[in-house]
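In the current project phase, we have settled on a layout for protein records. A sample record is reproduced below.
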Amino acid sequence: MLEGVLAFEVSQAKRGRSAFARALALDPKATLPLPVSPKVTAALEQVRATLPAVAPPPVPVPSEPSPAPIAVVSEAPREPVAHPPLTGVERGAGARSRLQLPVAIGGGVVAVGGALAWGRARSLGAQVRDADPSIKTRARLEATLEQGRTFEKVGWALMGLGAATVAGSFLFLGESSPGAQASLLPTPEGAQLSLSWSLR
């Protein structure tokens, strides 16, 4: 949706409608992330009207009741097999290992989002360097530069957070992570990730 708004801002209506169509294909009820002109709102609604209607979800068919279980009486009672109870460490390790993959995937998605934001910042910087014809006034130039700085900061922050999340998932959520420590400190340029661990 944001790409579509920015495309309309630089007079690229065809690209803007294409971006709106991709966004609505993912979420037909998606809305604009910020206030825009009536022309952009009208273009979004036109694209929404051209999309095919989403079919309603199928109605679940009730299943037949299962037959009553048949009781089987054994001739001689069997001694129950005693299993040693899981220790707190084993239970904690199992829970952590199940979370490792989802957390790592989530961190990767955040890092990809940061890379896209950083790429958008580079694109806006290229428009300024190449004297894009759409930048005709000083106010427009300053707004483009501000957007580029914002996308760059967001991109670095998201990439740092995503990398820290992926690293933390392997350090802290694995089967064994003795003495593993990680710290993420914000800096004026972005973020600093520190990792340390000991082998025991």
In short: Strands lie at 181-187, 190-196.
